[in-house]
């Protein structure tokens, strides 16, 4: 039971992400634009392998080499000839590797590749089971000898140099008994190359900081960033307007030089590019998987606007200034001006990264979001596939709730995503005093509603939300946005925008709230008792909300442990729909106000105490959450996987290459995606990984030889 969460069933759901009709409606120029942006995203997305764990890149290369030589169907025949049953063919990987054509052609190379990753691939040692910093897990954002104190010191150093951590990694090594740190910037430019642009030269070099030596170097993920820049250059030829061209120029400069400032400039042009037919974003974006919460994982998406659905979101944007005052914090804690963003529904063509979300609110740069704006996108074809639910697989609900849940889960989630992204992430003000001493609020008059006293803390200089709240920043913000969605979905005007009125509207509210408390229970899968840590920001956020609503009492939410029809442990979660608008709303009102006040005032101690308190998972109190976690693991369903299409240039036109929604389709999409330079790409990945192979051990010294 303890290790059941580390086993994945062979019958995991795999679905094709349909974008065929949307792509066919594009003009030839738009198709070429989308193609080149997709190529940039896919090559950049491979950096995630180097941002995750020591074995990730080698596993990818191992599988690519096997499947480039033989399709899944051909390999199944090989497996049968080798005496493996159809079930064993999916499970006994080593036997399959040895029987493969790739191994027959290059036995020593394939065996070495297997040896380099197989131990870690199957390891269930505590530190190697999960992402984490120091002895709490594994990460390749930091060398293995880094701990929380090292991360905090590095953040102070970066703040002192006005450098963002988004595109960096940190390596610690011993130099004659003195700790030295190497900060690597992701860039195509390597040390020793001539620079076409002198910008940011001052950021590279060696520096003394708090009696420690820091060295800042370019060149991380160099070959991958070169490919990204190449395709961004190609895409500029097909840009629809000047904003797109300048956006791509700045992105290219960012990935060439390792400049986050250039990426911010590109993001400004991106915000100005209103209503494009082909929408995209690319870079080191979300910090969910950095154990410290400051470094961004590479992602890139390319999508086509769904005009019909986008009209609803446009109405929501138009109503934002009416809905924002409904939120439970004082006016002074809201942005001075709501900068109306683009909010579109998109059909995803390409989403390269570690996962595909249902909606996005970007850019994540606080200064831009506060004063210049942002964009929201809802990924329509992802929603259509990801949240289709089968009744027999619905866990932890009463039978009488299941049909209603299935009927309204999709529409209710659409409402939640819209409110979460636009008015959740898009709301709230950060109180800032800049380097010149100027405040963006009246520090003598603004009162903290939680204390009744004048505000006494704020962000200073280059401090940001991520740098201040670090390890809890991502989950805390997702929780705040989720609470905004729950709170505002009670507003009839908001529901009417999405076409829900009267009884249908009440059903949408009920299912939205029921879905949230159920998700809070399901979130226990992502908690690790051994390290007392959460592994997924959104699921931690939903567990926190469950705790808040359980604490509200008065029978609003019920949670009980029961025995299932199969005789095994089970659980039931219930929601009294008659109390959502009273008990539930009041509870979220109080909690949401606290979240915003701590965020606005940079009150890290207060925010952490509140959030960590509700995040605690224990076996004491009214609910034995540790035992419930075991039940969740027993009953869990694997998350769906998506098969994405490829694009291919044929003469003067671009073709969309689609695949079936199966394991074979998923594999084929990846082998064809990188077939044009597969061997060189695989060599680059292996060399990048090998360079740092000794750095991931939890040891006292880490010798790096980065360029």
Largest sheet: 5 strands, mixed
Structural class: alpha/beta
Low-confidence stretches: 699-707
Rounded to the nearest angstrom, the distance between the terminal CA atoms is 45 Å
Per DSSP, the total helix count is: 26
Average pLDDT number: 92
Shape: globular
What fraction, in percent, of the residue positions are helical? 40-55%
Count of β-strands? 19
Q: In percent terms, what proportion of residues is strand?
A: 15-25%
Nearest-angstrom radius of gyration? 25 Å
Order of strands side by side in the largest beta sheet?
6-7-8-10-9
How would you describe the overall organization of this protein?
The protein has 26 helices and 19 strands. The strands form seven sheets. A five-stranded mixed beta sheet has the order 6-7-8-10-9. Strands 2-3-5-4 form a four-stranded mixed beta sheet. Strands 1-17 form a two-stranded parallel sheet. Helix 2 packs antiparallel against helix 11 and helix 4 crosses helix 9. Helices cover 47% and strands 15% of the residues. It is globular, with a radius of gyration of 25 Å. It is α/β, with parallel strands linked by helices. The C terminus is likely disordered. A hairpin with a 5-residue loop joins strand 15 and strand 16. It catalyses: Release of an N-terminal dipeptide from a peptide comprising four or more residues, with broad specificity. Also acts on dipeptidyl 2-naphthylamides.
